[in-house]
Write a structure and sequence with these properties.
- Helix content is 77%, strand content 0%.
- With 142 residues, it is an all-alpha fold.
- The protein has one domain: Four Helix Bundle (Hemerythrin (Met), subunit A), CATH 1.20.120.
- The longest helix is centred in the C-terminal third of the chain and has 32 residues.
- The two termini are 28 Å apart.
- The mean pLDDT is 89.
Length: 142
């Protein structure tokens, strides 16, 4: 699968979460394309938007975890916090040199791999938890 590509294998079965994931993958692809093209302004803008939307998505999931009594929510939220620290550091690096090899490498490997692993493992388990409930909790933070 090409970098940043979405595939049906990444669907969790929750329409809201899947839509948000697809949007995040598109933002990631845009940031990577800008970095590869050497467009510093577009890279900075795309990374900032990716950071904001990632924060919003994680808050959505964490609200759903809390409202549903999801047992491993602290570990899942910890994964989110660690990724946000890394993404924040990347945004800072892009502020200094948006098309640096470090920015490209992070987008090409770390970001892509983390999302795919997280979606297939932690998010799949979360959605399975929702499916086992009578009614999956819905957040207003969509």
């Amino acid at each position: 699968m090409p970098l940043t590509a979405w595939s049906a294998g990444l669907d969790t079965g929750d329409p809201d979460i899947d839509e948000q994931h697809r949007d995040l993958f598109q933002l990631h692809a845009g940031a990577l394309a800008s970095a590869r093209a050497g467009d510093a302004a577009a890279t900075r803008s795309a990374l900032q938007r990716l950071l904001e939307e990632t924060r919003r998505h994680f808050a959505f999931e964490e609200e759903m975890m809390a409202s549903s009594g999801y047992g491993p929510r602290e570990a899942h939220a910890g994964d989110h916090a660690a990724f946000l620290r890394d993404l924040g550091a990347l945004v800072s690096e892009a502020g200094r040199e948006a098309s640096s090899p470090l920015v490209r490498l992070w987008l090409e490997s770390r970001c892509d791999a983390w999302w795919k692993y997280h979606v297939r493992s932690a998010d799949a388990a979360l959605v399975a938890h929702f499916a086992s409930a009578v009614t999956a909790p819905r957040s207003s933070a969509k």
